Amino acid sequence: MLKANLVLFLFLCLGLFFGNSLVAAGAGTLLVLKLLNSPVLLAVLERHALQWGLLFLLIAVMVPLAKDQSGWRALIQVLFSPTGLAAVAGGITAAYLSGEGLGLLSFQPEIMVGLVIGTVLGVFFFKGMPVGPLAAAGLTAVLLKLMGLAQK
User: Fold this and answer.
1) Annotated domain spans of the chain
2) pLDDT digits (tens, 9 = 90+) for 119-148
3) Where on the phi/psi map is residue 125: left (φ > 0), alpha (ψ -120 to 50), or beta?
4) Which of 40, 88, 140, 144 has the CB geometry, 3.0–4.6 Å to 150, for a possible disulfide?
């Protein structure tokens, strides 16, 4: 229990120090729930939070469609343009990487420590955005396979 609290506290501090409010808020929320000894709520989050997060991410990127900022003709034109075709390829790649990442995280959940630290550093030093832990885990899984270090 103490070890988990220390890891969450470390993530909270890293998020605050490097200005990554999402990591800080996530770690802080989990730390509070852990300190409140709420295993039921933690179980609900474990089971549903990933899907809720993806739902809200999809809603956020679809808001311009809901606001009628693009017509059907423009959407079809973009879809069949080089940019649109690259976007389809990017979507396929992201879905594949996310699937690989989910497998890695379910088999080796402790890898999340490195993913969170890498995300914090990427946001701070490269002005990245911390929205892809599954893709990051997927990229990690592919890198491990390429280096011959993937566990079977």
Assistant:
1) 70-152
2) 888 888 998 877 667 888 989 999 999 998
3) alpha
4) 144
d(Cα 124, Cα 76) in Å, to the nearest integer? Answer: 37
Q: Which two tokens stand for residue 72?
A: 């059907």
d(CA 17, CA 90): 32
**Closest Cα partner for 144 from 116, 104, 115, 112?**
104
Tell me the backbone φ, ψ of residue 31, rounded to 5 degrees.
-65, -45
Exposure class string for 32-64: b at 16+ Cβ within 10 A, else e: eebeeeeeeeeeeeeeeeeeeeeeeeeeeeeee
Q: At which residue do the structure tokens 């989050």 appear? A: 45
- pTM of the predicted model over 0.85: no
- Given a contact cutoff of 8 angstroms between Cβ atoms, the answer to whether 35 and 5 are in contact is yes
- Beta strands (DSSP E) in the chain are none
Measured N-to-C along each axis, helices 133-146 and 82-107 cross at an angle, to the nearest 10 degrees, of 80
Tokens representing residue 98 in the block: 């996310």
Predicted confidence (pLDDT) per residue in 113-122, tens digit:
898 888 888 8
Lookup: tokens for 13: 């501090």
